[in-house]
Amino acid sequence: MDPVAAFNQSPIKGTFISHFMLVTLALITTDWMPKIFILYNSFFFFTLLWSLGAPQNCESVQLAAIINLLSILLDLISIAINYGRYHYLDWFGFSLFLLIVNLILRGITTIVLFRIYNDRNDRFGSYGLDRSPFTGTGIRDAFTNVRSNQTGYQDLDANSPPSNVTSSRDQVSSATSNVNNFETKNLSYQSVPDSFNVSLVDDK
């Protein structure tokens, strides 16, 4: 497989393999770099492995990019300090060449890692949640979409009352009119005829 195509297919894996081989070969030929060089490179390789193991985590990629960016300055300081004391060793020139190539490659891989971080952050966010079903702002849009889909609540400030309130008012009005008609009919049967009142006056 073409190395460029393989790197494009899995840039994190390509970054890990490239830097691991350069650093390892540079230290195997001549061990002239300080111990701190092995320390921060070990942290860098650990964050790359973490990024490969957690493809939805964007924090691991961000940490790897930051360490790789700081390693550029640390490599320059380490080479400048130790060059005068170890330049006479065998294979020193080859080791120095590999470290310079690794130093230049760090600038490229740092840009690649930051692009991967932005891509993961836009899709998954800091909590590893997939943002693709929403508009791109994650949990906030999830709750916004749920609220917009709730149609069971009515606007209390609307000018026209709801239909169920109108029907209830009509029922109350109809019941009130029926009660009034019933009372009117009962009062008509309870009234005493005038002839009955007259007969009672004559008997007295």
Automatic annotation (TrEMBL):
UniProt subcellular location: Membrane
Compositional bias annotation for Polar residues: 160-173
UniProt topology in membrane: Multi-pass membrane protein
UniProt xrefs under InterPro entries: AGTRAP
Residues passing through the membrane, by range: 36-53, 65-85, 91-114
BP GO annotations: angiotensin-activated signaling pathway
Keyword rRNA-binding among UniProt keywords: no
Residue segments, region Disordered: 152-173
The entry's keywords: Membrane, Transmembrane, Transmembrane helix
UniProt keyword Transmembrane, yes or no: yes
GO cellular component: plasma membrane
Pfam families, A to Z: AGTRAP
Name this polypeptide is given: Uncharacterized protein
Organism: Blomia tropicalis
